[in-house]
Amino acid sequence: MDKIDRKIISLLQENARYPLKYLAQKVFLSSPAVSTRIERLEKNGIITGYHATVDPVALGYHITAFINLTLDPKQKDEFYPYVTACPNVLECNCVTGLYSIMLKVAFPSTMELDTFIGHLQQYGNTQTQIVFSTAVPPRGIHLPQEEEEEETAQNQ
């Protein structure tokens, strides 16, 4: 992966709907060359998909929460299909610490969140944090360009 690939990835993370012509202008290549690079990045599993970013509140999902869960490893085969089928689960991560699972969920109301937590508790103890506000929304991975890498190396 070179600096052009990193620039293409950064641009696509900014807006996955940028036209090829715009991307090509930004990286000083032809549209077919950019298309070939994007296809290679997809084939290599670096670009894994394209998604619309939506406002959950505008869609009626006023409650975002993080739920920690203690899960016995023997329950994983039963738990993973269950949680995968729950449309309100935005993320499910295996984590270190007192709890083994961290879920990010969105619900229209605290009553629906409470019902979901009740179902989760068949798998283990939970701890829930409701989000009041988000200072840094989900964003892409920052890929330093060569100039930044050189600057960092010089400052060390």
What does this structure look like?
The chain is built from six helices and four strands. With 156 residues, it is of the alpha+beta class. The protein has two domains: 3-51, Orthogonal Bundle (Arc Repressor Mutant, subunit A), CATH 1.10.10.10; 57-130, Alpha-Beta Plaits (2-Layer Sandwich), CATH 3.30.70.920. The radius of gyration is 20 Å and the shape is elongated. The two termini are 24 Å apart. Residues 1-62 form the HTH asnC-type domain. InterPro entries: ArsR-like_HTH (IPR011991), AsnC-type_HTH_dom (IPR000485), Dimeric_a/b-barrel (IPR011008), Tscrpt_reg_AsnC-like (IPR019888), Tscrpt_reg_AsnC/Lrp_C (IPR019887), WH-like_DNA-bd_sf (IPR036388), WH_DNA-bd_sf (IPR036390).
Keyword list:
single chain; 156 residues; alpha+beta; Arc Repressor Mutant, subunit A; Alpha-Beta Plaits; 2 domains; 4-stranded antiparallel beta sheet; 6 helices; 4 strands; elongated
